[in-house]
Amino acid sequence: MKTHHRIEQLCNDAEQKRRCFYHTNDSERHAARTRVQRGLLVRPHRNVYARQAYWNSLNPAEQCRHVIRTLSTQYPNRTFAGISAAAMLNLEYSWSLNREGTIFLASSSGNSVRTHSSIQHVIIRRPPTHNVVHYLFNQQFCTLLMPANAPNTADSIMTNLPQNAILTNIVPVTSPARTLVDCGLQYPFVQAMAMFDSALRQGIVTREQVMEICDSLQKDCGPVLRLLRYTNPLNENGGESLCYATIIDEGFAVPELQHVFIAPQSPQGTFRVDFVWHTEDGRVIVLEFDGTEKYVDPAMTDNHSVQRVVNDERQREDFLKQAGVTAIIRVNYNEVRQRNPLVRKLLEAHVPMARAHPFYERYTDVQGRVW
Questions:
Q1: What are the structural domains of the chain?
Q2: pLDDT by residue (tens digit) across 218-235?
Q3: Which domain of life is it from (predicted)?
């Protein structure tokens, strides 16, 4: 197919700025649609295009961010909310929440209905907002989060960026606290936990700020209060947050996170585990969440073979038992997602149930310490 130089230029510029492109005249519109029909471009949203190969290289959360950056460029007065704001704030969550490709916008009036097949409005009276600022610096794509009371013009924002930085996108979103409240009310406990954990881990919000939003709303914020009770920034990724939340949701005792065991017989001397329970009868139960990348990602395996990684894990378990651990549970993402395999392993290891013993119904502070 004959090269359309304008479309190529739009694609190149958009990819550099981590967004899609949109047409501005009939010639570009016709050329873009023709290339969509021939499989060279994709159209994930109305008047939003990208090279098919480039688009397929992005994970669902980054695809969502590309669409939002494009829409914000076209409509700079829009404020993004809900899971769309969570994506722009780089909060962790299950990519399945982006499956339908819906973009959520904050609106001060009207109804919470879809005005377009891929756009849904969230009614928020005077929403607290932040600007997610993206810029290029030393060939790196960087992000800066600026609160609502900061100047939001391009010239004012540039004063907060490093010298020689190139401003690429300014995306208004609901504040981190308001975003957590909206998502906590919309999604189940086990799906929202990763957002709360990652927001606290990044230090972009406090529990008190989330409580202030809840206090200002005339609605039942019970689900958000439950999330605040248990959220723990010591969960290092979304998989661990999902596992942690599922354990709690199934009624088991709240585990301690990232506990360090001293193992003098080991060359490392210490081992840190994902979850641990110290029971009243003296047992020490460890649960390790195994992400697939632990076995297939060279960056995680130091380029070792799967067999080498498995052998290392077995040796690690031997050292943990020498350090006093009485039971070790290993679970993966699919077992957590299906719930029953995780529950069966917890029951077989005799992990205490919180409902059976109030001592285990505990929560943590912002540093992850158990109260």
A1: 5-57 (no CATH), 63-230 (no CATH), 238-360 (3.40.960)
A2: 889 999 999 999 999 999
A3: Bacteria
